[in-house]
């Protein structure tokens, strides 16, 4: 939230427990993973770690929020 102190925002901005299967409060740092696909070539959000990763997405959202950016 913009009204929170900067230090608090550094911890919480970009973290959305609803985006994680186990509803963890802080996104986990994973070194590797296998992403679910509906069918070959049809991903459920992430398909390959180099093109996108949940941890990286959280970090980008956090930076965008802290810099009052519109997009991550």
Automatic annotation (TrEMBL):
Pfam family name, one: Cys_Met_Meta_PP
Keyword S-adenosyl-L-methionine: no
Keyword Amino-acid biosynthesis (UniProt): yes
EC number(s) given by UniProt: 4.4.1.1
GO cellular component assignments: cytoplasm
InterPro entries according to UniProt: Cys/Met-Metab_PyrdxlP-dep_enz (IPR000277), PyrdxlP-dep_Trfase_major (IPR015421)
Source taxon at top rank: Eukaryota
Gene Ontology molecular-function annotations: cystathionine gamma-lyase activity; pyridoxal phosphate binding
Associated pathway: Amino-acid biosynthesis; L-cysteine biosynthesis; L-cysteine from L-homocysteine and L-serine: step 2/2
Transmembrane segments: none
Needed co-factor(s): pyridoxal 5'-phosphate
Key words of the record: Amino-acid biosynthesis, Cysteine biosynthesis, Lyase, Pyridoxal phosphate
A single BP term in Gene Ontology: transsulfuration
Family assignment from sequence similarity: Belongs to the trans-sulfuration enzymes family.
Protein's name in the database: cystathionine gamma-lyase
Organism: Parasteatoda tepidariorum (Common house spider)
Organism classification: Eukaryota, Metazoa, Ecdysozoa, Arthropoda, Chelicerata
């Amino acid at each position: 939230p913009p009204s929170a102190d900067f230090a608090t925002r550094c911890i919480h901005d970009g973290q959305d427990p609803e985006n994680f299967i186990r509803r963890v409060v802080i996104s986990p740092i994973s070194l590797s993973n296998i992403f679910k696909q509906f069918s070959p070539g049809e991903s459920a959000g992430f398909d390959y770690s180099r093109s996108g990763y949940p941890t990286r997405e959280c970090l980008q959202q956090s930076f965008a929020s802290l810099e009052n950016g519109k997009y991550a």
